[in-house]
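INFO  loader      accepted 1 record
INFO  loader      residues=412
INFO  predictor   begin
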Amino acid sequence: MNTRHTSKLLVLLFLLCTSFFIVSQAEAKTVSVKEIIKTQQITENGVISLADTKNTPELTQQTQGSWAIATNPLFMETDTLKQNPKKEEIFSVNPSSAYTFTQNYTSTKSVTPENARLVITDNRVTDFSPGVAGVRVDVRKTTLALLRSLKEESSTSPIIGFSEQPDVTLADTNNLGISEFISGGLSNFSNSSKNRRTNIDVGMRKLRGVLVAPGELLSFDKYLGDVTAEDGFKPEIVIKADGLKPELGGGICQVSSTLFRAVMQSGMPINTRKNHAFSVSHYFPAGTDATVYSPYTDLKFTNDTPNYVLIWPYFVNDHILAFDLYGTRDSREVIVDEPLQWDRKPDGSLKASWTRHVTNNGVTRDDTLKSNYLPPALFKKEEKFVPAAPEVTPTPSPTPTSTPTPTTSPSR
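INFO  predictor   done
INFO  writer      dumping tokens
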């Protein structure tokens, strides 16, 4: 194929991407990086709102007497108080009443441990649960905290508990080094059409359960495969150089963008990533999207950890997609900055960048991925669905870390 023909082909296919939902920059909501990446979940036991004690006469401040109780241990689980003259506290609330109130208030706060599951079929995880560590409320310590909070007239009092590990942890289920949550990404696909939601679901399942070996370069397009009606993909609006057109698979970029956000948080090297032709509200904030269109545009990253990494996507609810990555954490620390936008024009064009700082063995690497978005008005909408014709794969070009201007190759 000659150079002129190749260039023409690239321009005609230009940045095919997911179905869109455009809003003006003035209407674009602000999205914090904390809303699009997930960090390791820390169990919190919560608090007791002391406003909830006002309808409990036994816990209102008393004037006709006081109670001296030992604080270590607080008291027996009966009405008989265990005195300890070496360490006593005086309260104007009956501790037995406080203990009963705490028992009732926290009866639903405990969490039962749940065993982990990981089933591998044909080198892919087909059934998975990371397990759940249990939390049991320590009624004695929580009661003592409540008594002190009532004494100090605080607004809340902490619920104190201790964790209980399940009988089967994630590390017990495999010998691949998949033992804990590494990182995760989130995206919001509100206002998506029925077809777009179908495509997101089908595309997400193409990546569910993928195991990335140590040192492996993962290609999103490899696991996505051919985008066909037989696989369940529906026609939906995509962005091409000559306009917005319905095509099979519109919406897949929601999947690749969410995975991209998870990988950013993990600190693993991102080898290939490109932004959409213009800023699309499904991927706010600008600079955090990753478009794909096989075989021209791909998302690639390398597992540089010593163990396997499991990719496990799911729907949090009817409009939030999540990608969780599991493996074994190493010594690296990752800080992801808020994405930056600048050179914003009235026509909707702008530039953006997203930076992370990865520190490992005392050495910090700063990764900045850049994006350049064109005016949305350049792309006219066409309603008629026309199946995409087979295209000849152009000669691949190098894939730098920074995103080039989005006129160099197509994408889905």
